[in-house]
Amino acid sequence: MSILEIRNVTRRFGDLLALDDVTLTIEAGEFFTLLGPSGCGKTTLLRLIAGFDEPDAGRIFLDGVDLAATPPEKRPVHTVFQSYALFPHMTVRDNVAFPLNMAKRPLDEIHERVKQALEQVHLSDKSGHYPHELSGGQKQRVALARGLVNKPRLLLLDEPLGALDAKLREQMEGDLIALQRDVGVTFVFVTHSQQEALALSHRIAVMNEGKVEQVDEPDKLYSFPRNRFVADFIGNINMLAARVAETHHGHLVLQATDLGAVAAPLVKGVKAGDTGVLALRPEQVHISSHAQTPELKNHFHGIVRGLLYLGDVTVYKVELDNGMEMEALLANSAPGRAKFFEVDDDVTVAWRHDAGLFFHD
Amino acid sequence: MSILEIRNVTRRFGDLLALDDVTLTIEAGEFFTLLGPSGCGKTTLLRLIAGFDEPDAGRIFLDGVDLAATPPEKRPVHTVFQSYALFPHMTVRDNVAFPLNMAKRPLDEIHERVKQALEQVHLSDKSGHYPHELSGGQKQRVALARGLVNKPRLLLLDEPLGALDAKLREQMEGDLIALQRDVGVTFVFVTHSQQEALALSHRIAVMNEGKVEQVDEPDKLYSFPRNRFVADFIGNINMLAARVAETHHGHLVLQATDLGAVAAPLVKGVKAGDTGVLALRPEQVHISSHAQTPELKNHFHGIVRGLLYLGDVTVYKVELDNGMEMEALLANSAPGRAKFFEVDDDVTVAWRHDAGLFFHD
Amino acid sequence: MKFVHYALEALAGRLVKWLVSLPPTLFLLVFFVAPSLIVVLASFRYPGEFGGLASLLPLFGADSGLTLETYRFFFSDFVYFEIFLKSFGVAALTTLICIVMAYPLAWLIARSPKKRRDLLVLLVILPFASNFLIRVYAWIIILGPFNLLYTSFAVIVGMVYVHLPFMVLPLYTNLEKHDPALLEAAQDLGANAWTRFWKITFPLSLPGIFSGSVLVFIPVLGMFAIPELLGGTGDILIGNLIKEQFLDNRDWPLGAMLSIMLTVAVLALAGLSAWAGRGKGRMA
Amino acid sequence: MKFVHYALEALAGRLVKWLVSLPPTLFLLVFFVAPSLIVVLASFRYPGEFGGLASLLPLFGADSGLTLETYRFFFSDFVYFEIFLKSFGVAALTTLICIVMAYPLAWLIARSPKKRRDLLVLLVILPFASNFLIRVYAWIIILGPFNLLYTSFAVIVGMVYVHLPFMVLPLYTNLEKHDPALLEAAQDLGANAWTRFWKITFPLSLPGIFSGSVLVFIPVLGMFAIPELLGGTGDILIGNLIKEQFLDNRDWPLGAMLSIMLTVAVLALAGLSAWAGRGKGRMA
């Protein structure tokens, strides 16, 4: 059942078209993410849902009811702000009790639910502390507890992990998934980090310049991006300029400059003579020493020009004979060996004939 | 040739032993990283090298000369601060010219070298701007240019990427490597991010509670951590509690509770009866559907309990029959397939007999 | 060698420390300790032959000539107590009116676009750039035709008028620092405009109100020009009393004593409010 | 229906806006426009029969009775110009001395441990909690035995004494905000203590010096009590001149005119310094 429906919403700020005819449906119980570079309109959309701003055109429905006439304080939608926006003059307990006090709940119920909410975020021992006495991660958890305690229909999260450092962010990601599963509240999460989006979400809407480019599950989005922007924004990707030579029944034959024929999966609507790029993920590119002849159809000679050692994986930057640089990612799965190749090694890069996606210009 | 020698340096703050008999040697031209959790003493050490603080015991030599009597302004050592510490009342040009002015260089030389330094960090077009008009990444590059322009013997970098967001940080990492290679100045880099350390450094000193735990090249550190702290701090690692059953000539036979015999590489000084953990990297753990029998010696049944989809790789959390959770990392190398296994799948996890490291208690 | 070097350095360090702490020490001596001592001593002296004060110099000789006369005088006459009470009442009322008048003004400035704020602050200060007396005389001209001159009402109007900016500025400085996200968060969590003000804005502005109150309350207690020019004969406050002793009666010991009693009363009040507000220092 | 709802809401919004902008508008009208108008008008009137001012009411009738007499008087007598010049000189000198004295004090407070700062600020303000006149009289007692009373020196001492905290506080507020990492960075890059002060601390403190200078310079120009009590007959400043017209000569038009000329001079100076400092607003 859809809980939130955004229908043809447009929002302008002066000359800037912040949201351009956006239509989205969010299902009840989902962890839904709005992902995009800064300025793509994701935060604007969040503010429209919360009610801090009004659309110039279009409508927003919550549980089938148009929200236009409902002020923010009447919407069963709570927000976790990027800055957390904890009330500095209230203790953790009073911060979390705030929405319940506003809803004029009986005192003993407030007491009970605040206690429960603080347990959920593992902060029972901090209930008498003031926000400035907490670490960044603890503040973040108080903001979460405050947003969830009065069981909103939607919880909006505006880059809540942005202010945390890497190690803590990773840990909070796990906590967020567990929390959302436990409380069963629908989450609408805004982020510019594709890694956060992939790790957390049930579904992701990729936004760019006020438009929704693609809405899909993380693995679909990563494996089958609808266009070049999505392909490039989600994860790293190699872009090999090529021209379509033939379209076979099952696949395309591409011609890459100074490289030769490349087999690629068929794309609808593409015909011989089209130019474009073959987008290929680094982890789909195999790399082997020159001596071995790979059994894969697409294989080309190259020279290792650089490598980025990341511990669990290493990214090799290989220069092909046509001068194009291609990245290949290898997991360091053999014990005690961190690198399989060194800079200046002659190697063969190869990929399956059904790997990659062709985007025409 | 060693450029910096830190010999038995100790520093106390009240009861806190910030540095505990630290000895380190840094070679000329190196990209050397001090890595550790917050409070490990890495920033204290940096401040001792810069001269902002003095050791309680021990000595620091630069090019063979004891630095004790040299105040910070006389040391040929410059620092890039975490907050950048750009002078807000000076333009980018004047900020970068500052160290040259202090060194009383002739005006035309200053002009020339500032121009060159700004070109190196791609900021020539911002030379007349004030710091508050720059983005975080640009400020960072001005701080770098200012630190390098007077060709110090050492450049100290105090978590310079900490304030940048993920995408920018990744890009700056590449720029830093290139810059250090081009200018040939020795870098001493402080960070708490193991990923930054692995990607950037020639050598890394891992610090913990005021002590240096291990100094090594990134791949050696990752593959052959000297102790449990280093193994755990650098990258993710599975820790399988086990007891040594036998020590063979070439390997150990371990006994893991409720699991059975596990083959592991030999560790010096370990004898039968010792208890400890087998530390195993997630990317060394193979995972296959139950039907297949792997050719690897160590293989155990498990159930997939969760997965973290990261696009290029997926981390599977597998519960073994003894209740222990083991992570396995797989690159998503097959086109169009993001996940090989789903939650609750029966799988076999396996690893090579020469994978992992045993640490006894 | 090394030792001598370090010893010299330590010495230089101490010299710098001493040079740096000299000005504040001198400041306190010259500007606080000395005048205060003089005032305290003066309050225990007899008036001089032709008014003023018997010379202070014999103090350090055999004839110290100190007396509790003025203090006995103060505590024996109930009229002083009455004037003190009235003065504190006027100061409190002025402070209260200033808070009520300054709040919307400060709030409006803090909420206006950033580049317009400086201009608005300037507009608040501008009326007070001109001579103090002029401004009081303007009020004589305004209040005269309404037959409101030489009344307690006129005194309060004048007091509020003169001190209002000292309430507006600290309040504005405080309100400007408030994170607008806090109000959005409160609204998001169900608070209407009224509740947002009383639960968020007002408690967070208490330090500003407090600063402003100090800046209004204390000067009002010392003010003599406004009661003299705008008030009637019954509107005499402590400030006038003290001024009279120095300028008109030339009874310096009495003036000094009254001033000391005023300072003691203010300090007692400050201590009381610090005690009442203890533990609330956590507010951001 | 919907339309009516929106129309009502828009109306309510405007009402709120109007209610909120009413107090500042009233403030400006009552506290700035009205008194200023009265003063400007007064300066064009003849003095009243018994001093003061001829009633302002006929202004709005047929007999407007305006005159440029007082202005002609001002420009025809060179002594006014001299007093203006001297007053600005005293104000400038006082400001300069305040800067030099306040800087080390403010710096020391800003550099001391955080919890001690409030106490130190209190110590700076404390001497000024007592009555203004008392403090001036304490100086009479101090300066008297040295034969320094009733001299220009005594006037400057008194002026500096009274206005020093208004220089210390904005300077301290400014210096406290300085990021200590900036000084470390400067030292790291080769600057010694002297250079660090002149290249970093001082330029960054200019806004604080400016605020303090405004808070000292303008009040000194209006001050009459200190020249009167501490200065000789030759130490008359504009403040005294204006006060005399109102209190002693009761020539209100002349007083009003002088006050207008003073305001004009100050505004001209402010404009000049804004023009000189244009483009330096980038400083943090």
Low-confidence stretches of chain C: 58-63
Q: Give the tally of structural domains of chain A.
A: 2
C-alpha end-to-end distance of chain C: 53 Å
Helix content of chain C: over 70%
Level-2 CATH architecture of the domain at 78-250 in chain C: Orthogonal Bundle
Specify the CATH class of the largest domain in chain A: Alpha Beta
Shape of chain A: elongated
Q: Going by CATH, what is the homologous superfamily of the domain at 78-250 in chain C?
A: MetI-like
CATH topology of the domain at 78-250 in chain C: MetI-like fold
The profile of the biggest β sheet of chain C is: none
In round numbers, the mean pLDDT of chain A is: 89
Q: In DSSP terms, counting alpha (H) and pi (I) runs of 4 or more, how many helices of chain C?
A: 11
What is the structure about, briefly put?
Chain A is built from eight helices and 20 strands.
